[in-house]
Inverse folding.
């Protein structure tokens, strides 16, 4: 049997609507992912009513009572007390030996769990997809979850880099296409994760009930992490595009070499001046002076045949030089991108070393 997710409500926040209300940030920790849901107190009331209706009995825990004389917006103490009570309510339902409330659609819908989340490996895959969709729709508001999500972002970028390396080493077109597809998928996921992390930084910089805002130093460090991830993603995307363009040029050269040669020979035939109709006195050479008209014609035909052979050899040499030049150019583009990425890594590492030296200097 699959273990239940770890559920907690570590923080609360206030909506930015014209009529503000309290939002409870529910954190679910699973073997594959950690994500956050945002619910109102009225959502918990609806959940309790639906659980009672679908399970045929009230849940083993009660919701904290509704206050008619004060509001959680104006009373931080009441908001904190309700947060603790709602967290205890969810944890009691999650750990109760009787799972009839957890088996209802109301419970799964409230926590954004798939309908068969407790049955098989395929259900865990569906749960992961649901989690990713949920996180793409809202920012990461929990500091610990933010770091876990950033770790997943680094994994996606590492996977994309690995696939691009495999693509560069692949010898068949099918293998190259598969590696490119996997790299693009990872880069698209990384882009959506970067957006969620950027939105989360704005929330983490504000103080809310139940959670203090992060310090300026920590916020700056996390912004640097996002900036570095952005640069790495852009570099990998440019590298993938350069590889695709290089293969396209190689294929075009391989298919166009014979056609270019034929076109060159046709142009040479069309631009060649027609032979003179008669012999011109004063322009005879030692080779033509002793020949009659038929002999001069044969000599000209032999010379034109030799010139055609020379043009054929020259066309092949030019095509080879063109192909080599384009390959060198594309290789330089790829190497330049790799060097730029290496330079950025060195700069980030140097910055970390400088910070560590300053801290060591303060300690000593």
């Amino acid at each position: 049997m699959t273990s239940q997710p770890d559920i907690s409500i570590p923080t609360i926040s206030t909506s930015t609507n014209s009529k503000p209300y309290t939002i409870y940030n529910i954190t679910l920790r699973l073997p594959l992912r950690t994500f956050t849901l945002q619910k109102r107190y009225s959502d918990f009331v609806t959940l309790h009513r639906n659980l009672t209706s679908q399970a045929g009995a009230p849940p083993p825990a009660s919701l904290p009572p509704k206050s008619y004389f004060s509001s959680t917006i104006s009373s931080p103490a009441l908001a904190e007390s309700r947060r603790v009570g709602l967290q205890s309510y969810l944890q009691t339902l999650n750990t109760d030996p009787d799972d009839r409330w957890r088996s209802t659609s109301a419970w799964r819908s409230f926590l954004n769990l798939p309908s068969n989340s407790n049955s098989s490996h395929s259900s865990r895959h569906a749960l992961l997809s649901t989690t990713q969709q949920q996180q793409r729709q809202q920012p990461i508001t929990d500091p610990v979850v933010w770091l876990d999500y950033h770790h997943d972002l680094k994994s996606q970028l590492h996977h994309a880099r690995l696939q691009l390396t495999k693509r560069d080493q692949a010898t068949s077109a099918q293998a190259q296409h598969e590696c490119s597809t996997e790299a693009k998928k990872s880069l698209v996921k990384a882009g959506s994760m970067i957006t969620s992390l950027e939105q989360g930084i704005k929330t983490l910089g504000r103080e809310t009930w139940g959670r203090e805002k992060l310090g300026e130093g920590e916020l700056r460090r996390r912004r640097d992490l996002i900036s570095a991830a952005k640069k790495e993603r852009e570099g990998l995307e440019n590298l993938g595009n350069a590889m695709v363009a290089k293969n396209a040029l190689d294929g075009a050269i391989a298919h166009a070499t014979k056609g270019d040669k034929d076109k060159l020979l046709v142009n040479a035939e069309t631009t060649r001046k027609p032979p003179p109709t008669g012999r011109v006195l004063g322009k005879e050479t030692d080779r033509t002076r002793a020949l009659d008209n038929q002999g001069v014609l044969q000599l000209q035909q032999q010379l034109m045949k030799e010139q055609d052979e020379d043009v054929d050899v020259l066309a092949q040499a030019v095509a080879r030089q063109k192909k080599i030049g384009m390959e060198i150019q594309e290789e330089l583009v790829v190497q330049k991108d790799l060097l730029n990425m290496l330079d950025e890594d060195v700069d980030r590492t140097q910055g970390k070393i400088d910070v560590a030296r300053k801290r060591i200097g303060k300690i000593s």
Summary: Residues 116-131 have pLDDT under 50 and may be disordered. The CA atoms of residues 358 and 364 lie 10 Å apart. Strands lie at 6-14, 22-29, 34-39. The two ends are 54 Å apart (CA to CA).
